[in-house]
Amino acid sequence: MQVFVTGGTGNIGSAVVAELLGHDHHVTVLARSAASASAAQAAGAAVVRGGLADLDTVRAAAEAAEGVIHLAFGNDFSSPQALAQNVAEETAAIDTIGEALIASDRPFVIVSGTPAAAGRASVETDPLPMGGPVGGRGATVSRALGLAERGVRIASVRLPRTVHKNGGGGFAGLLAHAARQSGVVGYPGTGEQRWPAVHSLDAAVLFRLVLERAEAGTAWHAVADEGDAVRDIAEVIGRKLGLEVQQVPAESFGPIGPVLAADQPASSAFTRAELGWMPSQLSLLEDLEQNLTA
User: Fold this and answer.
1) What residues make up the domain containing 243?
2) Is residue 220 part of a domain?
3) To 5 degrees, how large is the angle CA 209–CA 215–CA 221?
4) Number of independent structural domains in the chain
5) What is the Cα–Cα distance from 212 to 210, expressed in whole angstroms?
6) DSSP string covering 120-137, please?
7) What is the CATH number of the domain that holds 103?
8) How far apart are CA 51 and CA 48, in angstroms?
9) Which end of the chain is more exposed for a tag (fewer CB within 10 A), N or C?
10) d(Cα 73, Cα 170) in Å, to the nearest integer?
11) Does residue 208 share a domain with residue 64?
């Protein structure tokens, strides 16, 4: 299959591209910078130069593909305005790709986060949040799944709060980065709240399976670790970096602070049973123990 991938050179995207190429798919990556283009080409992918906001380029690449995986999302979480801009840019890109694929029955895989469910681990049928710092993304993905009724084999992969590899990535990586800057491993909330996690290589396998097999309008959980207590994550980071661990206000993490402070375990039992997905890489705590360095 000829697959167009946005965000194909990041932590998750590079793993997805390698997984696709390793299973006889042909990949074209959207690359905004020369460095990203070189990385994609070195991995064996073709390149279309442009960013997510270059909608004509995005549309043309989607029209030429036999399937699309959309992973790109802005990295600026510094303010509510920046988050809103990230969501608006992604929404326009998803709408553009979706329109290009209408009535084609071609697969289109999009991304969201796993939702929270009061008192239990969330499951694939739970609705995405429509409010809060990232609620706009949930609204976009939920609406986009309606393309299933217009001849698009669209499906959503819900990623946990930490997608990790080599001791970095996701919310755990954010804690470690903040600790290196401040000299203290600060965690929001009580520390008892749980974050789910997955290794990027395991997540990549699920993206391929969803691309190849998922029915239109479905959602899947890329969750290997149902939920590690944030205090446990912080303590591993503190031990590896030789720093004190302490509670800090959620506001210390900017507009995404309330998300970090929330209890949000998630299950992937349905995903594993239906698609035969079996995570096999290091857990988050194992990855931090083995690979996090000062």
Assistant:
1) 167-196+227-266+282-291
2) yes
3) 55
4) 2
5) 5
6) B-B-TTSPPP-SSTTHHH
7) 3.40.50.720
8) 9
9) C
10) 13
11) yes
